[in-house]
Amino acid sequence: xxxxxxxxxxxxxxxxxxxxxxxxxxxxxxxxxxxxxxxxxxxxxxxxxxxxxxxxxxxxxxxxxxxxxxxxxxxxxxxxxxxxxxxxxxxxxxxxxxxxxxxxxxxxxxxxxxxxxxxxxxxxxxxxxxxxxxxxxxxxxxxxxxxxxxxxxxxxxxxxxxxxxxxxxxxxxxxxxxxxxxxxxxxxxxxxxxxxxxxxxxxxx
Length: 205
What we know:
CATH architecture: 3-Layer(aba) Sandwich
Number of helices: 6
CATH topology: Rossmann fold
Strand order of the largest sheet: 1-8-7-2-6-3
Oligomer: single chain
Number of domains: 1
Number of strands: 8
């Protein structure tokens, strides 16, 4: 981007600005939203459109993947994600994989219909492969200590069936260092950088 991203404070202001930017881009728009764990990317994605594709569903089966490789973009099926986004962007329905946080594995597929506004969100939503099919790129930023508090609150609420001790281990030794290696490149291609330093809640992913 020649002029750098637009910096926005808060998810509500970001929603308004992103939707305004999407409004003049044609009948179908794909928005990519990325950020580290518990930054608020899922919350923003749901506020933008009911048609949300999560990169979580393209994760590998955990039983077949060493722990330190599980969050790497190379371990996810980002080539299929790119194909699915291309279909939706062209106005065609597609079958996307269904990944379960109960079994940490792929459990089937589900049909997703095209929409005027499609949002793809997740750790590697702005990776080179899916980015080829994204019209607007968004990077959600939040301090590490805020994100950890959100992740812990989400776990206590029963959102994902991991013991809190294991979540803390995975957050600090796998998720954080893995995402940090890619964060600068994702931020560099963003049209919007959203500062989400708001209160802790159980729903910010």
